[in-house]
Amino acid sequence: MMKPMQQIRGISAVCLLAVPLALSGCGLFGSESASIDAPPPEVEAQMLQTSGDTTLDSGVFGPVTQDDTQTAVKGSTKTSQGNASGDRTTVFLEDGNGLLAPVSLSLSKSKDSTALKNSLMALVSKGEYASSVPAGFQGILPAGTEVKSVTVDKSNLAVVEFNSEFNNYDPLEERKILEAITWTLTGQDNIKSVQLWVDGKKLTEMPLQSTPLDRPLSRTMGINLPKQGPLLMNSSAVTVYFSTTSPDGIQYYVPVTRFVPAGQEQLTAALNELIAGPESGNGLEMVMTQGTILESVDAGQNGVVTVSLTDDMFADGKGVPAEMLESVVLTVAQNSDDALVQIRLNGKESITDTDNVDYSKPVSAPEYLNELPL
Fold it and tell me: Boundaries of each GerMN domain copy (predicted)?
């Protein structure tokens, strides 16, 4: 369970989507609009059709050595031998701001495809798992949707077949439905991509808004895209997790895809977007202070990525907001095949956060996000 929000909030996770884009519109990095909508058609086609590896949610905030049992996860303790959280599944639900957020639920586990089916059934509005969904969240699939089958082939493609009730959705939520399905499944069992069927027929496009489905969907499609964006030719997309609170005042994290000029080093670009903060007006909050500066990112040969930050507010490296440090760890791990992360702040390696977690050693990223109370 996450604690109520402190002075600076947020865990972030990043997955760089190396997609050449030609964008139009204005205000992506401004404060006028944070509405979620599909990108322009030519951008949509490229994002949906781009294939390739994407970094999936995995790993747990934990120590490098088996002897060190302290973790950077709020409200939980994990050793290298097991997870105190137990068996959970992370699914993407719609929150009160109309954004998709990962929520870790206790669902029935099994060794076959039942677990995958259950994760999708948790996305059904007023479905059998509605009582397992925390207050303030809801499934995005139409009521009455059934998951007839989920199979995974040798290429890690998940083929999902729904019943015809799947087609009875709000046309304005078409893309959000695809994002929720894709991000839920690609966070499990090394699944890389997703293909949709309805009542024995493969979908080549969505039935209401004709979103193309001629190729399998992966996380390259992004999630929670801004409605408008500036003219950025040859752009890449980074997906960053920002922070917000549930109706009960519990902190949770929301992924938002952002566009950056192509050619930037991906970890540097992602961390700079994290520091820049979310768009205003969508309920998301800053995870860094206005004085945070990224000095360097060093991917060492020992599998540890070192991130050097400066921030005069935390000159002695003590009492640093836990959310600030966790956001850096998640951002790096998500975008570097779950690398261990070493943080240096103002040149110091000895760093402790507001939960008294010691960051003097590298840590890894959490396996489950947003374990919210019902």
Answer: 116-207, 267-354
The DSSP 8-state label assigned to residue 185 in this structure reads H
Contacts of 76 (CB under 8 A, 6+ apart): 1, 84, 85, 371
Read off the pLDDT of residues 270-300 as tens digits, 9 standing for 90 and up: 999 999 998 888 899 898 999 999 999 999 8
- Residue 197: half-sphere exposure toward Cβ, Cα within 13 Å: 13
Query: Do the domain assignments include residue 360?
Result: no
The residue to which tokens 């396996």 are assigned = 367
Residue 187: domain span = 15-345
Q: What sign for the dihedral angle of Cα 357, 134, 287, 330? A: positive
Over residues 234-247, the pLDDT tens digits come to 888 888 888 888 88
Closest CA to 191 of 113, 103, 108: 113
The number of C-alpha atoms within 13 Å of 343 and in the hemisphere containing its C-beta is 31
pTM more than 0.85: no
Q: At what angle do helices 322-334 and 266-276 cross, to 10 degrees?
A: 150
